[in-house]
Design goal:
Blueprint: H1 2-6, H2 23-30, H3 33-41, H4 56-63, H5 66-74, E1 83-85, E2 88-90, H6 92-98, H7 102-110
Antiparallel strand pairs: 1-2
Helix pairs in contact: 2-3, 2-4, 4-5, 4-6, 5-7, 6-7
Length: about 130
């Protein structure tokens, strides 16, 4: 268990909605900027996904954490990475737009993010 905690890319095992999440993912959910920076410096995978395919950038965009989004993008996060949600393949931009995080949308555009074609999500997508 201690060794697992030292592995910045360790993924939680299981079958529920938390399966595949890493410490970086949780830091992005909570908006912990210093922890996100530290984990990336220690080699955390900015493009890693949980078992559903959702990345740290997806969750940071959905939560409206613009500073976290910027940190991830500056460290090579794939701004056009997609995952399956509500029967569609969506990007971080799609999530931010559906949740009206306009500041995050503008930031993602500055990193050449694209909206998925014909992607309309509910106003409250279940990103967990």
């Amino acid at each position: 268990l201690i060794e697992a905690c030292l592995d910045v890319n360790y993924k939680i095992e299981g079958e529920d909605e938390t399966a595949g999440r890493t410490s970086l993912f949780y830091a992005c959910v909570k908006g912990l900027q210093d922890i996100v920076k530290y984990l990336i410096e220690q080699g955390a995978d900015v493009n890693g996904t949980e078992n559903s395919g959702q990345s740290c950038l997806h969750i940071a965009a959905a939560m409206g954490h613009a500073v976290i989004v910027q940190i991830l993008c500056e460290h090579g996060a794939n701004v056009n990475q997609q995952f399956h949600l509500e029967g569609k393949y969506v990007t971080a931009y799609d999530l931010a737009e559906s949740l009206q995080h306009d500041h995050v949308c503008q930031l993602l555009k500055s990193f050449n993010a694209r909206q998925s074609p014909h992607c309309e999500l509910s106003s409250n997508p279940e990103t967990n």
